[in-house]
Amino acid sequence: MAQIHAIHRNRWALASALLVPAVVVWAAGCSGLTEGQPPTVWPGNVTAASTPQNVTTQNVTTQNVTTQNVTTQNVTTPMMPPATVTSHKTELASPAPPVSSAASVKATVRGQGWDANENAAGSGDYLRRPMAVSGGAYDAVQQASFQAPPVPNEPPPGYLPPAPGAVPVGPPAAGGPTSTRATVTDNSQWISAPYLNSGGQGYLPPTQQMPGTAVPLDIVVEEARTGRFMFGAGINSDAGVTGQITIDERNFNLFGIPTSWSQVWNGEAFRGKGQAFRLEAIPGNRVQRYLVSFTEPYLFWTPISLNVSGFLYDRGFYDWSESRAGGRLGLGYRLTPDLSVSGAVRMEEVKITNPRVLGVEQLDRVLGSNDFFSGQFSVRHDTRDLPFSPTEGHLIELTYEQAFGDFDYPRAEFDFRKYFMVRERPDGSGRHTIATSLTAGFSGSDTPLFENYFAGGFSTIRGFEFRGASPIVNSVVVGGRCQLLGSVEYTMPLTADDMIKGVAFCDFGTVEQDISIDAENFRVAPGFGFRISVPALGPAPLAFDFAFPVAKAETDDEQIFSFFFGIGRG
């Protein structure tokens, strides 16, 4: 115990002996400064005569030394030689305030928070030097000077406020710099840190980039689940009651044919190439759809994606029955993370049967079997944050399609959706969102009935029956070649867990037989509704809406309540 007190007394005696001349030198160096002018700083040519080049620290015991999450055991700290550079590229975590002795600025030093007000001699930050500030790779041999900032209230990157308690030690050499040095004793070993410049102004000196210490790491990677088998059921006001059975694999291998039964039972068959495969069956009382799809995201190791799909579709409408069988071949290319272009060829055989009324030209010309082919090109820019119920971002898509075969006509479509987040809780939940959308489409004069536009229902204009806001000829809903649909919707949480949300909306738009907008047929339907999210039932929320048309056409069929409800398990 006596030996420890002796060491403490010797250390305080040494500090007192150094303090008085250091203060005199520091006062003499600063006496020529004018008010508002920062002192000249000399970052280079700092000399520490008694500083060893490779100091090993072990079991360091210090007094009045602040260390945070720092463990030093058998650590070698090489002292980098001083250097001069043209500029100091220190990056601050926050904008530097005006130069003041009471200011506090945080700089990121290789992932550590470094407070300039903790630079006092003997602080734990000296044990972490020399360290290159993140983003500041310094060249040690570029120029010979480093100037203080011209305007004190607008310091350059890397300028830190004065460090309270920093004491300059030693006179300047031939008009050169002084240095601030902190020393800590540990078992008769010295740790010196001449890392701050003269005047205590807090400039981080230029240092060379230190090579990192090799640390052995064991990285264990486990593949996430890429395959899903899902089954469920749903009901909504547009499609009636439907079931769903889906097999989805996102790490598919088209040519991964199994060579043994063990590969089949272990799930190794047809897997491992990053391709996508989907098999889907949706039977229902009004709609039936069966789909098989294959996607190669990097065709021939290029950034071009390939999609091939085939489908069967059957739908019973009020005025006729419609069935389709066909396929689609598409190519896509992502220009940026948000911008993509795609092209596709569609081939279908469309059969129209069971007409409710005869003598309507649009319906009579498509009865029976129709061969339909088309080529399509689209440009898509998508910055939405979520696929279901997005809260920020936008979707802009332009599409041009040219049909040929039994029908020859062009088609152009524009789809725009924008989402604004009004407010949220501090933790990011409870978001209030405004969603806007506008869709426009125009089609040629040879467009068949089954490719016309229709409006009315949950997915187009709420407040009307499915296809109940469309042109009618002799009581048959024939649709039109022109559509303009829009919506504005405000969504807000009603519960703290965001599982129940309220919506207020207004849908508007029209569908016309010709390329024109008739104000008498323009529909407007404000309303409100609820969204209920049940994680066990899938990502899409349950939707219940009430809409009240305030503008409509004489032949429209109203429907106040519309809903979407689905159950899925996978």
Tag the structure with descriptive keywords:
570 residues; mainly beta; Porin; two-stranded antiparallel ribbon; 28 strands
Brief description of this entry?
This protein has 570 residues and is mainly beta. It has helices spanning 2-30, 261-265, 361-364; strands spanning 54-58, 73-78, 106-109, 112-115, 168-169, 179-180, 183-186, 189-192, 227-236, 240-252, 275-282, 287-296, 304-316, 321-334, 339-353, 368-382, 393-405, 409-423, 432-443, 463-464, 472-473, 476-477, 482-493, 500-512, 523-532, 542-547, 558-559, 561-569. Among the domains are: 2-200, no CATH class; 371-569, Porin.
Structure explained in plain terms:
This protein has 570 residues and is mostly beta strands. Among the domains are: 2-200, no CATH class; 371-569, membrane protein fhac: a member of the omp85/tpsb transporter family (Porin, Beta Barrel). It contains 3 helices and 28 strands. The protein has helices at 2-30, 261-265, 361-364; strands at residues 54-58, 73-78, 106-109, 112-115, 168-169, 179-180, 183-186, 189-192, 227-236, 240-252, 275-282, 287-296, 304-316, 321-334, 339-353, 368-382, 393-405, 409-423, 432-443, 463-464, 472-473, 476-477, 482-493, 500-512, 523-532, 542-547, 558-559, 561-569. Strands 9-10-11-12-13-14-15-16-17-18-19-23-24-25-26-28 form a 16-stranded antiparallel barrel. Strands 1-2 form a two-stranded antiparallel ribbon. A hairpin with a 2-residue loop joins strand 21 (472-473) and strand 22 (476-477). The longest helix is centred in the first third of the chain and has 29 residues, at 2-30. The radius of gyration is 37 Å and the shape is globular. The model is unreliable at 1-155 and 165-207 (pLDDT under 50).
